[in-house]
Specification:
CATH class: Alpha Beta
Radius of gyration: 13 Å
Number of strands: 5
Helix content: 40-55%
Oligomer: single chain
Low-confidence stretches: none
CATH topology: Transcription Regulator spoIIAA
CATH architecture: 2-Layer Sandwich
Mean pLDDT: 91
Shape: globular
Distance between the termini: 34 Å
Number of domains: 1
Largest sheet: 5 strands, mixed
Number of helices: 4
Strand content: 15-25%
Length: about 110
């Protein structure tokens, strides 16, 4: 698992693993990351389904409930297929932009 920390945001990706292995490693590492905004880069996975994305829903909800952003990055799915409860964007830049907007909303109490 590779961590790239930029300020209050940690970008996470991993090569040469299964999605279930990635999720297991993420859950193990989560206590060290829970105070950061988290971006999960899923570009190393050739095929993803909506079911795969929904496997991140519990950790996403937990993280958002603690007042932090949690964003998945992939361009493998149509965004009309993905439930609104989970944040998915097609590029890392859009993930950073989304986190910036969410931080502004939190600062304003929205």
């Amino acid at each position: 698992m590779i961590f790239d920390k930029e300020g209050t945001t940690t970008i996470i990706f991993q090569e040469n693993t299964t999605l279930s292995g990635f999720l297991e490693n993420l859950n193990k590492a989560y206590p060290k990351l829970k105070h950061d905004n988290i971006v999960i880069n899923l570009f190393s996975f050739d095929q993803l389904t909506v079911s795969n994305i929904l496997e991140f829903l519990d950790i996403s909800n937990t993280h958002k409930a603690s007042g932090q952003s949690f964003v998945l990055v992939t361009d493998k799915l149509g965004y009309d297929e993905i439930p609104e409860e989970i944040s998915v964007v097609p590029t890392l830049q859009e993930a950073k932009d989304l986190i910036e907007m969410e931080e502004i909303e939190r600062d304003l109490g929205l």
